Amino acid sequence: MTIVVGNLGTPEGHAAFDAAVTEAERRKAPLVVVAGPGEPGRDVGELTERLHTAGVEVRLDPGTGDLADDLVRIALETGAELLVIGLRRRSPVGKLILGSGAQRILIEAPCPVLAVKV
């Protein structure tokens, strides 16, 4: 069983990444980090060493450019036990509409989804 997370350079992406690392360490589960489109995410070099020291495997996946599809696909392929995403706070009107990527992940994910709010 694995934990899957995207690596985005946004505040939501950073929060999801940190939560996924914590869960991987706590569960001693392999972590699959999927590259997000556009701007670079966290540098995983130092993190990889930290996780290896904690006994956690890390795999990097370049993705295809559609992060929602990539996360769901990789969760299916790896038999993930958890998929971690980040969400930003929304206005009262914005709460009626969840981001399309997040909505697709929540609906299509083959495993529990941990949504981390920023």
UniProtKB/TrEMBL annotation:
Residues 48-117 form the UspA domain. Gene3D superfamilies: HUPs. It comes from the Bacteria. CDD domains: USP-like. InterPro entries: Rossmann-like_a/b/a_fold, Universal_stress_UspA, UspA. SUPFAM superfamilies: Adenine nucleotide alpha hydrolases-like. Transmembrane segments: none annotated. Belongs to the universal stress protein A family. This is Universal stress protein. It comes from Myceligenerans salitolerans. The lineage of its organism: Bacteria, Bacillati, Actinomycetota, Actinomycetes, Micrococcales.
